[in-house]
Write a structure and sequence with these properties.
The complex is a heterodimer of chains A (about 140) and B (about 375). With about 140 residues, chain A is mainly β. Chain A has no helices and eight strands. In chain B, helix 3 (about 80-95) crosses helix 12 and helix 6 (about 155-170) packs across helix 9 (about 285-295). The longest helix of chain B has 17 residues, at about 335-350. The chains are: A mainly beta (about 140), B alpha/beta (about 375).
Chain lengths: ~140, ~375
């Protein structure tokens, strides 16, 4: 049995895990949540923060499709495929920027339910969000 | 802050675009000499200078070409707000009495293609760039996507902004993109970052701009048409604003640094946004011009749709915007863009904008730049 592939960075998400979570930080003083985890609070300047697991489900706040291969340090596969990017609002927590598992504008709409998935990225893995209704829902309101 | 009023008494530019074999610094020296000539002064008359580029080296090395006079020359590097920030420094220097005749210069020269950024220089982990999230075009695609959703802006409006830019650029001999494009050509161009197509984005480019500043009381010595720099303000992002290179955003949106800088600039000038007769707002993408118009207080959210349909922001409209073609037609040499905006407004207020002159002798102008990772600089000018 082979070992689980490496994450793109330590401390971004729980891995390996059956139900992975993003790792954020919460301010002990004002409650504001940040991703990735940081050692101070960007809202109230407190340095009293705790790591926390973020929720796995949210809604799409906004999105686009990256249509050209970014310049280095982009480290994606040589054969470029456009990919979706969006901010997913985790209720009561924070809006997280992420790659999306779909890149078809017809299947992306603001407000649609999304869930966290861990996806291959070259020979490593990274986090992304996928439409909850799966690839067949059409994503239209 | 009290202190003498400040005037722009000389302006100089090196044409924007691509200039193989010319360094950014060489273009900057050209722009400074043009500005000195416009003011009728020599480099030896200059008390201080502020300047910068993002990718084309240190501004202060220009003294080797301009003359080693020993003047204080401070380098400024503040993303897309580099030129605007240098201008704020010079404005403060004159207001404080630290010097009387100052030069501000911004220039740049970028490789072809989209900007590439190093995550570490923005305090971000390598993974952010490696996984393809650190792309400026992406950010403006996403911010625009949400804005058009919330405020009912159509794809046609996004195309109208770009079509206007290229029409205005065609009238500007210093612009890079001088071929008018139809709204149809813009709308049907390849999508770069949905909902923005290829022609709705500016390209990184090359160019340089310099200004000569003096106390307004002295301005008559240098210029028969001095333009008052009523205010120059720079602001960084507050918690909750939607900014480029943000791995996460707060649940509650806060005003952007553009809102803060514009509000402070108008307050310091004692002039309201409703008094502006010619404006330059950062239009690195057509969606950016639409959003920044509202953030600067020049229109209400959503009003842009009707404004663009009615031609309000055209050169002969009620509020001409980006009369020189903006970033879309001039390209984006980061260090130079903010000062290009001031250069254009000065030309317009002086009535020397030639084929693109705003009719009706405008008296009040405004400029706005925005840059990574959430910085904005605004000026209010009047004659």
């Amino acid at each position: 049995m082979s070992a689980a592939p490496e994450p793109v960075a330590d401390g971004l998400f729980t891995w390996p895990a059956d139900q992975p979570h993003l790792l954020g930080s919460g301010c002990v003083d004002c409650g504001v949540i940040s991703f990735p985890a940081q050692s101070s609070c960007p809202a109230c300047t407190s340095v009293s923060v705790e790591e926390r697991l973020l929720g796995r489900a949210g809604t799409l706040y906004t999105w686009t499709v990256q249509a050209f291969r970014p310049k280095p340090p982009y480290a994606g596969p040589e054969a470029f495929e456009p990919y979706g990017v969006g901010y997913v609002e985790l209720p009561g927590e924070v809006r997280v920027e992420a790659r999306l598992t779909v890149a078809d504008p017809a299947r992306l709409r603001i407000g649609q339910p999304m869930e966290l998935v861990i996806v291959p990225f070259g020979d490593r893995v990274t986090y992304a969000f996928a439409p909850v209704d799966g690839p067949g829902d059409g994503g239209r309101s | 802050m009290s202190g003498p009023d400040v005037a722009v008494v000389g302006i100089g530019i090196h044409p924007f675009g691509r200039h193989d074999g010319l360094s950014g610094r060489t273009m900057a020296v050209h722009a400074v000499r043009e500005a000195l000539r416009d003011a009728g002064v020599a480099w030896t008359d200059v008390d201080f200078a502020f300047g910068g580029s993002n990718d084309a080296g240190n501004a202060d090395t220009m003294v080797a070409d301009l003359g080693l006079t020993g003047l204080p020359f401070v380098n400024v590097r503040n993303g897309c707000a580099t030129g605007g920030s240098a201008l704020v420094c010079a404005w403060n220097a004159i207001r404080s009495g630290a010097g009387r005749l100052g030069v501000v210069v911004g220039f740049d020269k970028h490789p072809r293609g989209a900007f590439a950024s190093d995550p570490a220089s923005y305090g971000l982990g390598p993974w952010y760039g490696e996984t393809g999230l650190m792309v400026t075009t992406q950010f403006f695609g996403m911010k625009t996507q949400r804005y058009v959703h919330d405020h009912g802006i159509s794809p046609a409006a996004l195309a109208r902004v770009a079509a206007k830019a290229f029409r205005n650029g065609a009238r500007n001999p210093n612009a890079w993109r001088r071929r008018p494009l139809s709204e149809e050509e813009i709308l049907t161009a390849p999508m770069v970052a949905h909902p923005l197509t290829q022609y709705m984005f500016c390209s990184p480019g090359e160019g340089a701009v310099a200004l000569v500043l003096a106390p307004a009381a002295d301005a008559g010595r240098y210029s028969d048409r001095p333009v008052h720099l009523r205010s120059a303000v720079v602001r960084t992002r507050r918690f909750g604003s939607f900014e480029v290179y943000s791995p996460s955003l707060a649940l509650e949106r806060a005003d952007s640094p553009t809102v803060d800088a514009a509000r402070a600039a108008f307050a310091a000038a004692g002039i309201g946004p409703d008094e502006v007769q010619v404006a330059q707002v950062q239009d690195t993408e057509s969606g950016a011009e639409i959003m920044h118009l509202a953030e600067c207080g020049l229109c209400k959210d959503g009003e842009q749709e009707e404004w663009l349909a009615r031609g309000v922001t055209e050169i002969d409209g009620a509020l001409p915007v980006n009369t020189d073609g903006g970033c879309l037609a001039n390209g984006e040499p980061i260090g130079a863009s903010g000062l290009r905006q001031v250069y254009e407004v000065v030309l317009q207020l002086q009535g020397r904008a030639g084929d693109r002159q705003v009719p009706g002798r405008p008296r009040v102008g405004f400029t706005h730049v925005y840059g990574a990772p959430g910085v904005s600089a605004c000026t209010v000018l009047s004659r």
